[in-house]
Structure formats: structure tokens, C-alpha cells
Write a structure and sequence with these properties.
Strand 10 and strand 11 form a beta hairpin. The chain is globular and about 65 Å long. Strands 13-12-11-10-6-9-8-7-14 form a nine-stranded mixed beta sheet. The protein has a five-stranded parallel beta sheet with strand order 2-1-3-4-5, sandwiched between helices. It has about 400 residues and is an alpha/beta fold. It has twelve helices and 14 strands.
Length: about 400
């Protein structure tokens, strides 16, 4: 993931970045900032980092931002930064889900590129409206489904696209956690409070928070488009207002079948994201807990272990690999890959040139599909697991 240089050999200027959300006590904001720094494509120069001007200013001071560029709201930030000669060129939106639509809209309409956390929005109506806005905007929209940034995930995607697996028959995804096995939201735990609040999270609990990740990853690797699903959506913890477990059967266009399990009450699991894809010629297995390895098995042959940076890794994996094999790359590096892909696209847009075809990142369309998946899961659950078109 080399730093870009201009044709004259000079380093491409860093992208001036702002952030909405991600202030004191926020988990994902810090992750986004680390990811943006890792490959050195961005400078964080402004923020509307919290829900009040006082907290936003305090959070900005902690990060060394100019107090004049620590804003009390994203609306103020969009207006004032767009008017500055040195204003932000891109913004990271790392708020709870219900803020995504309005914040993204404000910056897109000012021509500022948007890098937004998932899911796209808290409801399907807003998701479709945001896609229409993004399609008309003179700015890019990047969705941070960070698991698509892993080198072995890129390798797996290329295996499928090249026909090495044959016709895809089965796609299995799972993402179990246990951090909500007890009603920790009732203790005021910040990350749990908003994720279990329908007003902030949307209609989906585990389906929206981690089910969307599993669904996106399976779709990204397989290249398949979902047709319909049947979901057993359940809330195990008494008093919780959103689902904390779901089992979903999937039917893809073209005839492939799928299974997806997401749970935040699966005792003993941390972030157990896994994907298995089986075709007529071969199968693949990848797990996020051991992300530098991909199992590839041709029909009738022994399992083959492909390693990140190793002899068997393909070009799609190599272009997002930073260090030699045997030195593990993980979550932050995968997240950084999305930011770097975004930087390549933003710099191409600034230069008025076509972006390299190898550059891949989740788009607003992927975001709409994710929200449609959650919506269909909740609808199916209300129908006692009836099949629902997506």
C-alpha cells in the first residue's frame, strides 16, 4: 500500500479530513483515525466530534485540533468548512446509525467526499434517499465495511471471480459475539446503550450491527445478489428492545443457497466472523480471528493453506499487503485498506482522472443492500420466518 506520488515524482498532498462523531469515550472513532493515519494519506483538521459544542471542543483539544475548527454540529461544520479555502476535502461519519443520513447529506451537497461507517442508515427509506443524493453529488461516498480490506478476503474474491470454485452452490456466514449476553445497556454502557435503542440503531439489533457485516462479506466474496430470505429473529435478554440473535436462510439469484447466523449472546465468542463458500469445483474458508490464512480445497484434493504474503497469494491480495508473510496483519490494517482505497479514488477525482480498476471499496449501493437485508430480516421475523423478497 505505497504512498501515492504525482507524475512529477512529488508526493500527493494529504487529504484534509474532518470527522463527525468519534469524540471522548467513542470506540469506532479512534479506529477510523488510526486507519486514516496508517498509510499516511490524510490529515485530520476539523471535527464535530460530539453531540454538544462543549464535548466537541474538549474532544478536539484532546486530538490537537484547532479550537476554531471544533464545531458544535455537523451542519455548522459542513457550512464553514465548505467556505474555507483550506476546508476539508473528505469527512468521516462515525456516529450512531440514525445520524448517518442527515450528516452524509449535508457534506455531499457541499461537494465533500463522505467516508461513512456502516450500516448506511437506520432505515431503508433514508438509505434509498441517500443513494439518490450520492448519485447526484459531485463527491464520492465510501462505506467502511472494513472486513473487505483483508488481503485473504481479496484473494478469495478473485478466486471466485476467476472461476476457480466453479458455479457457486453454498454461502455460509456467521458472526457470533457474547458481549450483550447480559443487559449491559441497563448499566449505561455507552456502546450498548445506542446499539440497543431503536431510535438510534434502527429496527435491527444484532442483524444491523454485525449481521450486515457477515452479509456484506459473503456478498463481496461470492459476487452473488440476494433474492429472498427467511429469518428467525429473536431477543433472548429480557427487556431488550432489539434482536440479539438471528438465523437466516438465503436464496441468491441464480440458485445458490446461503445460511447466516449473527448473535451477540453466544457465550464464549468475541468477534467470530467466518465465511465458507462452496462451488462445483472447490471451496474456501476464512475466519477473521486468523485472517492471514485462507483454506482452499479443490474437489477430491487435499486442503491447501494459502497465506498472506506467501507464494500462493494472488495479485489482488498482494496489492493490499503491507508486510512480509509471517508478520500478522489484522483488523486495523484491513480498516486502513478501505481508507487508502478511498484516498486513491479521491485523488483520482481531484485530478480528473479515472481511478485504477484494481481499487475496490464498498459503495452507497452496498449500503442500501445492507439496510434492505436488515429490513427483510425483521419483516420475516414478524412473519414467523416467512420468506421475504429483498
Amino acid at each position: 500500500m505505497a504512498i501515492e506520488a504525482s507524475k512529477s515524482g512529488e508526493r500527493t498532498p494529504k487529504i484534509r479530513l474532518g470527522m463527525v462523531g468519534g469524540g471522548q469515550g467513542a470506540f469506532i472513532g479512534a479506529v477510523h483515525r488510526m486507519a486514516a493515519r496508517l498509510d499516511d494519506h490524510y490529515d485530520l483538521v476539523a471535527g464535530a466530534l460530539s453531540s454538544t459544542p462543549e464535548k466537541s471542543l474538549a474532544s478536539g483539544r484532546d486530538l490537537g485540533l484547532d479550537p476554531e475548527r471544533c464545531y458544535g454540529s455537523f451542519q455548522e461544520m459542513a457550512e464553514k468548512e465548505a467556505a474555507r479555502e483550506d476546508g476539508i476535502q473528505a469527512v468521516s461519519i462515525v456516529t450512531p446509525n440514525h445520524v448517518h443520513f442527515a450528516a452524509a447529506k449535508a457534506f455531499l451537497e457541499k461537494g465533500i467526499h463522505v467516508i461513512c461507517d456502516k450500516p448506511l442508515t437506520s432505515n431503508l427509506e433514508d438509505a434509498k434517499a441517500l443513494m439518490a443524493i450520492a448519485d447526484e453529488a459531485k463527491a464520492l461516498f465510501i462505506l467502511t465495511h472494513n472486513y473487505t480490506g483483508y488481503p485473504m478476503v481479496r484473494h478469495a474474491r478473485e478466486l471466485v471471480a476467476s472461476g476457480e470454485l466453479g458455479d457457486i452452490r453454498l454461502v455460509q456466514m456467521e458472526y457470533p459475539q457474547d458481549w450483550l449476553a447480559e443487559p449491559v445497556e441497563q448499566t449505561g454502557a455507552k456502546q450498548a446503550v445506542w446499539r440497543t435503542d431503536p431510535a438510534q440503531s434502527g429496527a435491527g439489533g444484532s442483524t444491523g450491527d454485525i449481521g450486515t457485516h457477515a452479509y456484506n462479506l459473503g456478498s463481496f466474496i461470492s459476487g452473488l445478489e440476494l433474492d429472498e430470505l427467511a429469518a428467525d429473529v429473536h431477543t433472548f435478554v429480557e427487556g431488550r428492545r432489539l434482536d440479539d440473535n438471528a438465523h437466516v436462510m438465503l436464496r441468491f439469484k441464480g440458485g445458490a443457497k446461503g445460511l447466516l447466523w449473527c448473535s451477540q449472546v453466544a457465550t464464549g465468542n468475541e468477534n467470530g466472523l467466518k465465511v465458507r463458500i462452496y462451488g462445483t469445483k472447490a471451496g474456501i474458508e476464512w475466519t477473521q480471528a486468523d485472517p492471514n490464512y485462507l483454506w482452499f480445497t479443490r474437489l477430491g484434493e487435499p486442503k491447501q493453506l494459502i497465506t498472506r504474503g506467501g507464494a500462493g497469494a494472488n495479485a489482488a491480495a498482494a496489492r493490499v499487503t503491507r508486510i512480509p508473510s509471517g508478520h500478522p496483519e489484522g483488523y486495523l490494517e484491513a480498516f486502513a485498506t478501505i481508507y487508502t482505497e478511498a484516498a486513491h479514488a479521491i485523488n483520482a477525482a481531484k485530478a480528473g482522472t479515472a481511478v485504477d480498476a484494481a481499487v475496490v471499496y464498498p459503495t452507497v449501493d452496498d449500503g442500501v443492500k445492507g439496510v434492505a437485508f436488515v429490513t427483510a430480516c425483521i419483516e420475516s421475523g414478524k412473519k414467523n420466518g416467512g420468506w421475504v423478497k429483498v
